[in-house]
Amino acid sequence: MLVSGWGLLCMFLSLTESGWSLEVSDPKEVIWLQSTDDALTGSAAALWCSGPALSECAAYDEIPVTDGDTVDVMRLNSDFRLCCEKERECVLCLVIDATLYIPPDKDQESDGQSGADEEYPNEENDKESFRVCYKDTASIGTCKKVEFNLKDLIPGNHTEISMVISHNGGFPFGLRLDVTAKGFSQAVTAPSLQEVCSQKKLQKYLKSCQGPSVTHVINHTMNWMELLVDGEREDLPSLCVQYEREGICQRMKETTIPLQSLAPCMCFQAWYEEERESMRTLYCPFVDEGFPQELQENVRRNLTVDVHLRQVKDQKTMLFWNLSAPCRLKGEVRLCSESSCSKTHTDTEQLSVQNWEQTEMQLWKLEGMFPNVEGTWNTSFCIQIQIEGKWQESICTNKPGRWRWSLLVVGSMLLISLTAFMIYFFHDFIKKWVQSYHRGKFVPIALQLKKGHVVLVSPPKVDDGVSESVRQLGSLLSQQGFSVAVDHWSRTEQGILGPLPWLHSQMLKVESVGGRCVLILTQETKERTQDWSLSNVDGNGPDQARCPYSDLFYATLFLIQRHKLQNTASERFTLVTLESNLTQDNLPELLHKLPLFHYPSQTGALMADLTSQRKKSVRMWAWPRWRTQDFQDNV
């Protein structure tokens, strides 16, 4: 993370040989680099160093394997900071703080040669030096030899040194480095771009942190708050809403929010969807400006309170309560009775922000209890909540006695309603049963099924238009009271039973309850019927290699042929055509004399035909046993 209290570099540092200078105006923000000569180019790295007891501090590239340190390193601390230069974007640089120990013999040697220094001021023997290295996992590392002269220093004392390492392009965000110096080693990780941009004071220094700008306007006329998003891009950014900064952010499809849904802790995030590294703008409209006074009622209205009693194993009664609200509330909960809720002689519990938990519905939930409440199960206990210094209305538990009476009344009403419904529905049955009872014997009473069973069979291959028409016809028959089976709707059942057993079961139902097998007549139906008739012209029919049982459609043709031999085909099969050019005159021989209706123009005639020929199943009850009879209803 970025250095926040870097006091030693709160000064002006310079390195005249390179034409660069370093200035730290605010240790909590950035380091400013000022170039007085050519700017740093390529991948070259520059190092600035300074200390209270140092002078002429300079740094040079060093081979990692060399060793020539003249001072000892007692402490090493490294971190990353933002380094900025005018007309350039800020980058990350490495900051290293170290505590150096000058051995006494070195200091004495330095004092003994002070006279020689005056005669030979450019002598390099007097400079102290040590080496600092840094490397990541993908490189062999970089080392810098730091040289400096000592000012007045007490022998055996310590001195501090601070270094800033920067290179063109800066260190990558999220980079992990190992920094070593004279036996000391420290691992340091650069902050991610998100971590840097999350600090408001640093956002202005990085263009990558400049996400979409979000503002709002409250429209009392329309009863909503509208979000205004402004960015440098033409495409609209994505939005999400969250309650509290730590809350779950849920995507928004609209930019307007009803006023009654607003909450003081409401925040919004805006970002560009297609950019993986796009920074999100966090906008909390009511954190700084405050929640509008006219919307304060939302806090109370959106608060949900649940109170209930529970008896534990030791027969003690405990009062449990839980609160749910869009925001975490601060306040107080106190226990009181239904008659009074005074503050004296009552148990209280503070509402702590840390104890709230957010649910999947984005609501914050807090649970609590008051143990060992005194009273019986008929006693109504209450709690009162204080929010922002104001006590809300009491919320009480319901008395169990009231619940018992309520359940009794509701149960009685349901029983009476059910009895009335049965009397109305079975009125005729009950009337006949009573009449038979007065006559001294029980008369068989019949409950008849009003409609029959219809099987819709289509050719194997149909287009979307035919499928839609068949669906409409099946739905219409169902609405008219028929039980309907459509071959295209029953593919799963056919896969389990097989197409032929399925058709056989459907025809048995037609025989038992009455009804028809309706064949959908199309041009394909006509062609397949002609081909099938030609393949059976020799009379072998099912014994041929092309058996009519090969699929459900040919099985239906086979059944039509069998019923024609018995002169009952017109009673069990009906043709429904969806094409106006198909008439009785151009039908194959097998389909002649079968009832033919055009759908939807002859829907009424079709319904009348299906109704007039239905067969009803009649159940006859007689005391003390019942039996079932089937008869043909001639309407």
UniProtKB/TrEMBL annotation:
Residue intervals passing through the bilayer: 403-426
Occurrences of domain SEFIR (ranges): 468-610
UniProt keywords, alphabetically: Cell membrane, Glycoprotein, Inflammatory response, Membrane, Receptor, Signal, Transmembrane, Transmembrane helix
A Pfam entry, by short name: SEFIR
Regions annotated as coiled coil: none
Compartments where found: Cell membrane; Membrane
KW Cell membrane (keyword) present: yes
A single BP term in Gene Ontology: inflammatory response
Protein origin, superkingdom: Eukaryota
Interleukin-17 receptor C/E N-terminal domain span: 82-396
One MF annotation (Gene Ontology) recorded for this entry: interleukin-17 receptor activity
Biased composition range(s): Acidic residues: 116-126
Topology with respect to the bilayer: Single-pass membrane protein; Single-pass type I membrane protein
One of the record's GO cellular component terms: plasma membrane
Keyword hit for Cell membrane: yes
Region (Disordered): 105-127
Range of residues in the leader sequence: 1-21
PANTHER family: INTERLEUKIN-17 RECEPTOR (PTHR15583), INTERLEUKIN-17 RECEPTOR C (PTHR15583:SF12)
UniProt name for this protein: SEFIR domain-containing protein
